[in-house]
Design brief:
Layout lengths: L2 H17 L6 E9 L12 E6 L2 E7 L5 E7 L6 E7 L3 E8 L6 E8 L22 E5 L4 H9 L5 E2 L2 E3 L10 E3 L4 E2 L1
Parallel strand pairs: 1-7, 8-10
Antiparallel strand pairs: 1-4, 2-3, 2-5, 5-6, 8-11, 9-10, 11-12
Bound molecules: zinc ion (ZN).
Length: 183
């Protein structure tokens, strides 16, 4: 082979990985910890569901430290939404992880999720990163009242507050009406 042929071969070998979709499993290593701003929520032995585009792709449980490890997520492209469920926790969105192009993500997530604000001071949804459909959650009204409102086609957002439908206060403080998630 001539030198230039080696050069072409070399260039092809270098460029090849960009065109091949990685076949190795996607891994998420997650450390769930208490948010110092709200220490009332426990983080161990929580049921964890990882969703992609609204569909569950993995379910598992955090260990006694609040850590969980997941692999073999078949769909490579994120973002992946991490939901936790537990007694006194309800179902919380604690993070939305972009995993594009990475085989492994090692991350720290807080319960409740760390609050982020836009320049106007509105709290941002961890999923859509917008604040225009985010409402504080109000606990108090009974589930049947809220279900009746839903059936009647009435909004469950009253006076700018999302009606949780339970008087038992959970960890979630906010609701995004765009994504139908609590955080
Ligand atoms: Zn949202």
């Amino acid at each position: 082979m001539h030198n230039y042929q080696y050069s072409i071969l070399f260039a092809i070998l270098i460029a090849l990985p960009a065109f091949i979709r990685p076949s190795y499993p996607t891994r998420i290593i997650c450390h769930i910890r208490k948010n110092p701003a709200d220490l009332s929520v426990y983080v161990n032995y929580l049921d964890v569901t990882i969703k992609r585009r609204g569909h569950a792709v993995w379910t598992g449980r955090s260990d006694d430290m609040g850590d969980f490890y997941c692999d073999k997520i078949e769909n490579y492209k994120g973002p992946f939404d991490i939901f936790c469920t537990g007694v006194g926790v309800g179902t919380l969105l604690i993070g939305s992880l972009p995993l594009n192009g990475r085989s492994c993500l090692d991350t720290l997530l807080l319960i409740p999720a760390e609050k982020r604000f836009d320049h106007t001071g509105r709290i941002l949804c961890p999923k859509c990163h917008k604040g225009d459909k985010v409402y504080p959650i109000e606990y108090g009204e009974s589930l049947t009242d809220v279900e009746d409102s839903k059936r009647a086609g009435e909004s469950v957002i009253v006076n700018g507050k999302f009606q949780a439908g339970t008087c038992v206060a959970m960890a979630a403080k906010y609701y995004c009406d765009r994504d139908n998630v609590q955080f």
